[in-house]
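REQUEST ID: PR-0412
SUBMITTED BY: lab tech R.K.
PRIORITY: routine
TASK: structure prediction, single protein chain
INPUT:
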Amino acid sequence: MKTYTFPPIISRKLSLLGLLLIFLAVAPLAFAQEEPALRLSMRRDFGTGIGSNIQGTFSLRAEGPDDLERVEFLLDGEVIGQATAAPFRYQFHTESFPPGTHTFSAIGYTAVGQTLTSNSFSSNFLTRSQSNRAIFWLIVPLLILAFGGRWLTNRIAGRGGRAEEAAVDGLFGGTICPKCKRPFARHWWGVNIGVGKYDRCPHCGKWSVVQRVHPDILAASVQAMKQADAQSETAPPPAPDEEALHRRLDNSRFDN
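STATUS: complete
OUTPUT:
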């Protein structure tokens, strides 16, 4: 019987196609990452948690199948505690262990004798002094940015009458001070409390809750402020109180 053979180039292509089909069939099984039957997590009860750096009191919690009976909590492969009833939880304090990087994991035991291994994760245990320094270097830059921005905003807004009058509308809108009735731009560092911003008026220096005002109302308020300033500059000084002058004259007399 005569057999048919494919040309070499077609044979190679068929071989490559067969390998590709095998790869596509096996790859999902090879790369699939099955979620562990026992899930381990950690939460902060009291203390400092900055990324993986922790200090204080924390709790480990394990979640698994319904027939989970007992969980052992491990630190660097050594059992540090166990729980025999749901919720499977273990509380610890970082100062009970040496400072440095440690790895958490857990082992669960089911009612049918099955042993489950959890996921693992690492944390860096800080001492109290290290935690205080970490908090300090986290808060200080934020305070510098907050107060520096506030000072810069006040500096820009208070350079002069014309600059102050122009700064009545900005990124957060303009408003009118309920105390002195003068317009100003709401500041970015004002505290948003839902019904408005708790902000400081650059004119009178008083704090109040202010809302965004329509630009037309702001423009009218600016004109009214200019007119009031112009009238106060051209108005003659108030006449002295005649009765007060008589009292001052009487008080200044003396007997020989």
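NOTES: Confidence is low (pLDDT under 50) at residues 160-166.
REVIEWED BY: pending
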